Amino acid sequence: MKCIIFTLIVGTVLSQTYHHHDIEMFIDRSFKYVDTDHNGVMVMAELDGAFDVLDVDHDDKLSYAEYTKYSQSAESQLSHDVYNHFDTNKDGFLQRTEYVDSVFSQMDHNGDGQVTRHDYDHFFTNVVQHEMHHGHNGR
C-alpha cells in the first residue's frame, strides 16, 4: 500500500513538471534522429554524425539554437533542461566531448559500442528524473 501511495505521489509531482507524453515524444524523436540506419541500435558514429549535422557553423560546439534546429519542442522546458544537463562545463554550448563522448559512454553501460533503444530510453529517463529533482524544475 505504501508503494502505491508513493508511486501516486511521485507521479503527481512529476506530471506537474514535465508531461509524460512530452517526455516520450522527446525520447522517441531524438532516438529516431540519431539512429540513422534505423536498425534500433545506435553506435557512436551515428551520434557523432548527428553532432556534425547540427553543428551548422562547424565550430565543434552546439549552441542551443543548433541543438534544437530540427526539434519540434525547441521552446520546451524539457529541451532546455536536457541541453543544460549535457552542458557539464556550463559555458552555454555543448562541446563534442559533452554531447558525443560523455553521453555515449554513459548510455553504453556494458561497453559493447552499441546503444539499444532500451539503453537509450533508460538513460534519458534517468536524465529527465535528475533534472526534475535537481535541475531547473527541481530548484
Automatic annotation (TrEMBL):
SMART domains: EFh. It comes from the Eukaryota. This is EF-hand domain-containing protein. GO terms for molecular function: calcium ion binding. The keyword Calcium applies. Residues 1-15 form the signal peptide. Residues 42-77, 95-130 form the EF-hand domain. Keywords: Calcium, Signal. SUPFAM superfamilies: EF-hand. InterPro entries: EF-hand-dom_pair (IPR011992), EF_Hand_1_Ca_BS (IPR018247), EF_hand_dom (IPR002048). Pfam families: EF-hand_7.
